Amino acid sequence: MIVPMREDHVAQVAALEKRCFSDPWSEKSIEFELYNPLSAWLVAETDGVVTGYIGAQSVPPEADVMNLAVSPDCRRQGIGAKLLCAMFELLHGQGIETLFLEVRPSNSAAIALYEAHGFVQAGRRQKYYVNPTEDALILRKEL
Q: pTM of the full predicted structure?
């Protein structure tokens, strides 16, 4: 089930962030997003367990996907696609027309997911990521 992130999800989202990323957001940073009027976060949850999440910040008519992660134990089950589609619907309803995100060029699974959902490459940010240092591909999707 895809639901808006709540305070009781924050610790699980932070733990998943640590499992999925080499430079994870802190629990405090994730909690701050609950109260940020520019942010929207959704979680995939099964029996009270967070299996994935997505967060975006919006300045209409554009938004940026900040984070998308799915538990390594739950990948290849369509959770990432469901999170993306739920975010598309939410943002479109808020008047967002264009969605951007950054992704590591080495993350071929994520790139395949994004391309399958209509994202196209719009640019590249040099040395955007750390641990390890890597460029970011900038992807764009028109909603």
A: 0.94
